[in-house]
Amino acid sequence: MPARSAGILLYRLPEDGLEVLLGHLGGPFWAKKDDGAWGIFKGEYAPEDEDALSAARREFEEETGSPPPDGEPLALGEVRQSTGKLVVAWALQGDLDADSVQSNSFEMEWPPRSGRRESFPEIDRAAWFDASTAKRKLLPAQVAFVEELGRLLS
Q1: Phi, psi dihedral angles at 99 (to 5 degrees)
Q2: What is the mean pLDDT of each run of 10 residues along the chain (154 residues)?
Q3: Which pTM value belongs to this model?
Q4: 44-82 burial string, b = 16+ CB within 10 Å, else e?
Q5: Which of 40, 137, 140, 152 is deepest in the core (most CB within 10 A)?
């Protein structure tokens, strides 16, 4: 059974159109990448232990350091990432200072085969992007979430 993740795509509607908040993936693999290295705020959950929307809200807070805004979530569907992981997402309208995002961290052996463990933030920075820029920045499978949000808001 594939791993499952749930997430929230935060959006706002300034006068010049839709903007979404994305997080740049942390760790040494993503450090020098930009296009295709951003994602929604999401994380794994076990469907038998937690419902997906609750998991999405929990992960948003863990990866931004702020609770998700109140409001009616818009279902954006589910995608399969290149790793095989299934990701389900919702959109919430709100605002958050991208510079204030403080993510939780993970540990991994770094450098490889060194025997040393290093800690890295899951998300090393966040930024607001207009929809067309977001589609370039996002992991390819997650582009569908921005497209669906645009469709729902039009």
Answers
A1: -70, -15
A2: 94 96 96 97 93 97 96 97 95 97 93 93 96 98 98 95
A3: 0.94
A4: ebeeeeeebeebbbbbbeebbebebeeeebbebebbebe
A5: 40
